[in-house]
Amino acid sequence: MSIRILRISAVVLSLFSATAPVVARDADDLTVAEERTAPQPSAVPCEGGLQLTAPQGAPLTFHIFSITGQLVKSATLSEEIVRIELPRGCYVVKCGRWSKKVMVQ
User: Beta strands 60-66 and 71-77: pairing type?
Assistant: First the structure.
């Protein structure tokens, strides 16, 4: 039994000795990278519908789906902000690769 305990402790010791050392760096080594992202479209619930916002630039097409997957409305925005009237419910709004789930009350 004592030989088995010695073997287990030797295995455990070898596992801990195989870890990489942790090295602290100076504060001078820290760098900050600034990443700029393109403005994203947005869909915000408002009373009786949605407020769709498109970043300035080319017109964007928004597709609004019911929670069951049926296309409810499509809108191509050439203006920056448009209000779309919708009945109460849960919707998925897609614009290109962007999508968002919203609840209209």
Answer: antiparallel
The token duo for 91 is 């919707």
3-state secondary structure of 4: helix
Please state the pTM of the whole predicted model. Answer: 0.63
The token pair at 86 is: 């919708």
Tell me the pLDDT tens digit for each residue of 14-35.
555 555 565 656 666 656 666 6
State the Cα–Cα distance between residues 44 and 20, nearest whole angstrom. Answer: 49
Q: How many CA atoms lie within 13 A of 16 on its CB side?
A: 5
Delimit the domains of the chain by residue range. Answer: 42-104
3-state class of 10 per DSSP? Answer: helix
What's domain 42-104's superfamily in CATH? Immunoglobulins (2.60.40.10)
